[in-house]
Amino acid sequence: MANAAQVQRMSRLMIKTLREDPADAETASHKLLVRAGYVRRSSAGIWTWLPLGMKVLENVSRVVREEMDAIGGQEVLLPALLPKEPYETSGRWEEYGDLLFRLKDRKGADYLLGPTHEEIFTLTVKDQCTSYKDLPVILYQIQIKYRDEARPRSGVLRGREFHMKDSYSFDTTDEGLAQSYALHRQAYQRIFERLGLDYRIVSAVSGAMGGSASEEFLAPAAAGEDTFVDCPACDYAANTEAVTVKVEPVDGAGHGPVEELDTPDTPTIETLAEFLGVPASATLKNLLVKVDGEIVAVGVPGDREVDMGKLGEHLAPATVELVTAEDFVDHPELVRGYVGPQGLAGKAFKYIADPRVASGTAWVTGANKEGKHARNVVAGRDFEVDQYLDVVVVEPGDPCPKCGTGLKIDRAIEIGHIFQLGRKYADAFELDVLGQNGKPERVTMGSYGIGVSRAVAALAEQTHDEKGLCWPREIAPADVHVVAAGKAKQTELALSVGEQLGAAGLRVLVDDRAGVSPGVKFTDAELLGVPTIVVAGRRAGEGIVEVKDRRTGEREELTVEEAVARLS
Ligand code: ATP
Ligand code: MG
Ligand code: MG
Ligand code: MG
Fold first, then answer.
1. The model's pTM
2. Cβ neighbours, 10 Å, residue 292
3. N or C: which terminus of the chain carries fewer CB neighbours within 10 A?
4. pLDDT digits (tens, 9 = 90+) for 138-186
5. Can you give the residue ranges of the Aminoacyl-transfer RNA synthetases class-II family profile domain (predicted)?
6. Is the ipTM of this complex over 0.90?
């Protein structure tokens, strides 16, 4: 019996593919998801999911749901529109800064659009669970999140409105939390394997969530905005935000007294280059120096590259000193100006505290207010004016902190993040349950996120080829894409094949569009990226179709019966 719902005729599908890349698109996923008609930009960082995109998004959500259910997660849906008070209680109304979308209701009360939901889940459990017998509990939702990202770019990879699976675990003991965390870790491994994503689990910093242990799931891809080190010899892998390796700091920068440029009255490019320890032909990014005691950015406004030639013009005849990290404690706006509100201050310091480093990855370590080692720091927020800072530069080949082998450094997309929050939110909201002995016990929590919409883009990044998207079957909008390449005879056969495949339980897209040339249909089929393409073409009269593997390009002529048997 044909299952009509499984067969989608393209003549009735709302889809408009594009031959040209969108002008502002830099990454493959952005270009291809738009060109293939999966998503359309609504406004900066805000996206419409069109029918095929919706199918892919739903497939990712389904995998996530199944694996969350498998570890005992219970699905709920909390509001996205939230009152300010809980976020004031946790301190995040302030802490999130410009990242938060804030709004007022008609009475003037403050609201926000949820960037993540620790506060509200804590309150939900406080309302629902009163005894240790009610725990442990794992709650999750798949929901839209809002973050006013400084640089929403790369299409749905970094949206200002995006889809996230977030879950939260509630336990009474540390062992319980460790167990809930381990369950999530395993569920995430299964999810990303099923999605067909190549990924690494790396140590991470817990950032705005607070808490202790935290790991990220990173999908290696050039388009990624995260950098991680990976040891080829042991299991050590870490986001550079969280690396604990220490290598020798470059002389001078960020250390002790400010170095003074010992030059003649008019420094030349050569003397400056020598001072900076770079070739005179070098291009430096965001070079900041002090000229007569004033911090100045040398370069063309809006241009992040500074060439030594332009630099020379700014310097004569003045006293030039290297800017140190300490200088920026008084000028956090300069740090933010270069890095963005939530960005890696460490990256800025690479250029600021140590302008001699023209490449590689660097970050700042130092003592924060509690005397702990701080990473991903923002001057003024995370450390005091008089605190000493180290600039640590990690380059490929630096020793692994575990085994000493040379590290690899790669770019990746953060697709998931798991945290052991501990009692931070339970303390803030006084979340207790009655223990076995009748006394209240403070609950301990974990929080776990997956970027569901980002995973779609990450998959596109990792699996596309020069012809277009190329989905793994589990995630593809259909199993088979049947192309009617010709006239009535071909269309008839294509629809019949489609129906038979549908009846066999496959999800089928049939390109039965009239007045569209076979060439355009083939190009669209490659662009759309369904894993198997079946063509009813030249030999349709004999009941013969061509079955083609989208990824390998392997093709074979088969009778309709053979094709249906092969594919189902
Ligand atoms: P990033 O470092 O990329 O900004 P994050 O660390 O701020 O992400 P988390 O708070 O850990 O993100 O959120 C959980 C997950 O939500 C992330 O691992 C990521 O997959 C996804 N995510 C976060 N921000 C965005 C965004 N702006 N667009 C799409 N997905 C996002
Ligand atoms: Mg972020
Ligand atoms: Mg992150
Ligand atoms: Mg994260």
1. 0.78
2. 10
3. N
4. 999 999 999 999 888 889 999 999 999 999 999 999 999 999 999 999 9
5. 53-472
6. yes
What sign for the dihedral angle of Cα 393, 394, 400, 404? Answer: negative
| CB distance 400 to 369 below 8 Å | no
In this structure, the chain runs to a length of 568
Report percent pLDDT > 90 for the chain.
63
Q: Please, which residues have CB within 8 angstroms of residue 279's CB and are 6 or more apart in sequence?
A: 273
Ligand 1, atom 8, lies closest to the CA of: 414
What's the per-residue H, E or C state across 314-354? Answer: HHCCCCEEECCHHHHHCCHHHHHHHHCCCCCHHHHHHHHCC
Q: What is the per-residue pLDDT across 522-561, written as a single tens digit (0 to 9) for each? A: 999 999 999 999 999 999 999 999 999 999 999 999 999 9
Do residues 402 and 236 touch, judged by C-beta distance below 8 A? yes
* Residue 406 and residue 377 in contact, taking contact as beta carbons nearer than 8 Å: no
* Coil vs helix vs strand at 375: coil
Structure-token match 């001699």, residue found: 356
Q: Could you tell me the distance, in angstroms and rounded to a whole number, from the CA of residue 217 to the centre of ligand 4? A: 9
In DSSP terms, which residues pair with 283 in a beta bridge?
307
Q: Considering only CA atoms, which of 439, 349, 423, 446 is closest in space to residue 393?
A: 349
> Relative to the CA of 208, which ligand 1 atom is closest?
10
C-alpha to C-alpha distance for 424 and 132, rounded to whole angstroms? 19
